[in-house]
Fold each of these.
Amino acid sequence: MTKDTIIKVFEKSFPFPIWKIEVDSLQNSLAIEFRDSETTIPSFAVLDFRGQEKCAPFVADEKEWTLAAIQGDYLILKRFGTSSPIQAGIQIIHISTGRIIKTLMEYVLQEVYQDFIRANHRAVPSGMPVCIAIATGDTQYAGRETFKLPHSAVHYPIAYQGFVPAFIQELGFTDQLWLQPYGDLFIWSYHKEMDSTYQLHLCISDKTQRLDEKVILMDLKRLIPQPYFQVQEYIFFLSNTKVEIKAYLV
């Protein structure tokens, strides 16, 4: 890779809008939920950070399933209700084989930890929690065990309100400017208005000069409130139609 440049890694399209993305930072994996526009039935795809599919997409049997987490070689799904954001139902899927490890309809997911899921029984929501082993689906009472949260390296740019150097001011950006420090570089993101539409730009700089710039998205009808998320040296963007994801290296 050329030093101090922005390099496009992949661009991946989906047949329906993306609803949710979960990241496994240790395995460099993206779990992506996209839903049929008519039936709202979800499908789940798993990509590595180079855009390669790790498996064929899984299609859920009911629209109430939604993505909760990805950890190692496992997808964790939970159910949401019509009148509440979550209801009883947890499903663990082995990514490599597509095999359903366990479906537990009597438990409400509370938190996903390293190697375990913490859950409560639907009949006793304030009762003693159980822990569910992700690899097997086996359950046991959690007791006073200490659980470790999974490693996360997902970062989001901050809306920048400080001093703007002259070499950034001259870009002629519209509205908000976002900044994300990374090592000895600074990652800037901003919109430009072009003929009644907007473009989303990415720029990297050091403390004294711009090093590279790229137009990431074009023909936007409105400004994007959160331009991207970053994991390590990878930056991920969703298209304005939500059916496409792009990744860049900085």
Amino acid sequence: MDAKVKDIQRLADSFSGNKPPQLTVEELNDVIKALRVFAEHGKETSYPTLHTLA
């Protein structure tokens, strides 16, 4: 597994075990889900382009 993917997964794990007080539970769940989906399906590019977003 790529190191960057592991880093993103660790970040999601960190959020799931440590809720920042500024976030509601719903926001926290959204952040965790987004990070996990990004780790699984994200594509590395120098910047987002229409082609990579499609």
Amino acid sequence: MNAQRVYQLMKEYHSKTGKVMQGPEFEKQILSNFDSDSVIDGLLLFNKFLDESRSAFFKTAIFENYCEISL
């Protein structure tokens, strides 16, 4: 499925750089290689991944702060 490939490319780029692929790099890697439906679906998957990553990060940060305060 091409949407899954778009998602994987976006996730790999994010893992390597800590940034979201955009601009000329996005055009070169994604837009020029996939149809619009695959791009949209892949970006939705990637957005969900980012939301879940942020949620997990904040839950961990809140828990660690709570533990420090409790001690």
Amino acid sequence: MSAYWEIHSEKVHKLILLALIKNRKEKLTTNKEVYMTCANFLQTYVDWIKGGSGTDEHFVSLNLISNDTNGPARYAEGRLHLETSIISPEIPLSFFVGEATLYESNERWGFPSDDGSFSLAEFPFNPRTTDKIKVTINLLTPSITITSSTKGKAIINNPQCSNNLIFGFVTEGSGVLGVGGFPDSGFPLPFRPYYVISLTTGSIPVP
């Protein structure tokens, strides 16, 4: 009887191990597919920036939105440029880096009064109470890092790319950017901010 249960137990352990290996392979395949999609998506903008001539400078414009279950909606716009850091001849690291202006829905404003000051605070996204954020997109990983000197940090590892958008939940963070309406709760949280970024190409004449 003991030998039977030993053999049976060994078979169960093997089945569990095979199931775990299969699940791991499926996750790796999914992550690879997501990475390749994002790599192809971002490479289009890398090629655009590198295609600038002596008469014009190419850049990438960024539009960002985010939201969470217990905090305001956020919107940011800015420009990104390409930076490359060589950690070894075989592994060049490329980044999109830039500054963006951040607007928040809980910062409210209204129609100007006679003296030019704002009065009725009925509209969101006050243009007079904005913040500056730094946005870095690691093209190798890929990952997104959003930082502010006053609102913390949000990191989105393994974002998804589809329909000309790059998006995902925060995977590491601090402050309102990283943990939304729970800035003192630390990480991880049951409800994480979600970010969506769209990119567009542009150019300006070189003086």
